[in-house]
């Protein structure tokens, strides 16, 4: 599904990624972990080119995203869902309108868009808040809207960048539960950045430990956390 080869990225003189390699198969979940500032967020943003690497390859379903024209890239991105740390909801739109946004570019009728948005909101258990505005929601509910907006396109690749990092500890659990229930599909690959060790152990098939822009360990969650 996804193959990442020798990703290199610098900001000015600071080398942030120093050759990151990994791959994700259909049905797999990969958790990217490591100390603050080690390049986790930069790595996951490179997977749909929200951040453009200086060099390397991001091969998604056989196509290197770095070789695409911008219109081809927009089209492939319609198969990739992204969940942001800070939700990125549009405040003047309702919950349902926020979730319908990714479908606008696609060739769906309004009726279909409403139907798919409702289905996505049901998956994150927020169907009853469809006509609310983001400011009426808790942080945990906002992030569940962010997850519904990523799921509505039925992405074959789902990316989550520290989805619980800006939430009160008390709201983290509801969001992790929704991620666990709603994002997994045999047809999908999931990559997430998280500091939640027990959650990563539970959901990830593969854990990738980054340090200073390099993969220092990669393996099944058991092997990573039981090795000395
Ligand atoms: P992590 O997600 O592991 O905390 P990041 O990928 O966010 O790490 O950041 C890695 C390094 O790159 C940090 O030193 C950060 O300050 C720097 N960095 C990230 N984004 C930018 C940017 N847009 N401009 C300049 N420096 C950046
Ligand atoms: P079902 O209840 O079997 O999912 P739907 O009427 O919801 O049937 O969907 C009909 C078709 O549209 C199916 O092929 C399904 O894969 C596709 N589809 C459903 N939801 C979405 C969506 N959010 N984005 C794109 N395609 C979708």
From TrEMBL:
What is its subcellular localisation?
Answer: Cell membrane
Q: Where is the ABC transporter domain?
A: 2-228
Q: Does the keyword tRNA processing apply?
A: no
Q: Which InterPro entries match?
A: AAA+_ATPase, ABC_transporter-like_ATP-bd, ABC_transporter-like_CS, MetN_ABC_transporter-like, P-loop_NTPase
Name listed for the protein in its UniProt record: ABC-type polar amino acid transport system, ATPase component
Q: Which source organism? A: Halobacteroides halobius (strain ATCC 35273 / DSM 5150 / MD-1)
GO MF term list: ATP binding; ATP hydrolysis activity
- State the similarity comment: Belongs to the ABC transporter superfamily.
List the lineage, top down: Bacteria, Bacillati, Bacillota, Clostridia, Halanaerobiales
Provide one Gene Ontology cellular component.
plasma membrane
Record-linked PANTHER family: AMINO ACID IMPORT ATP-BINDING PROTEIN, GLUTAMATE_ASPARTATE IMPORT ATP-BINDING PROTEIN GLTL
Query: Can the keyword Methyltransferase be found in this entry's annotation?
Result: no
Please tell me where this protein is predominantly located: membrane
Q: How does it sit in the membrane?
A: Peripheral membrane protein
* Key words, A-Z: ATP-binding, Cell membrane, Membrane, Nucleotide-binding, Transport
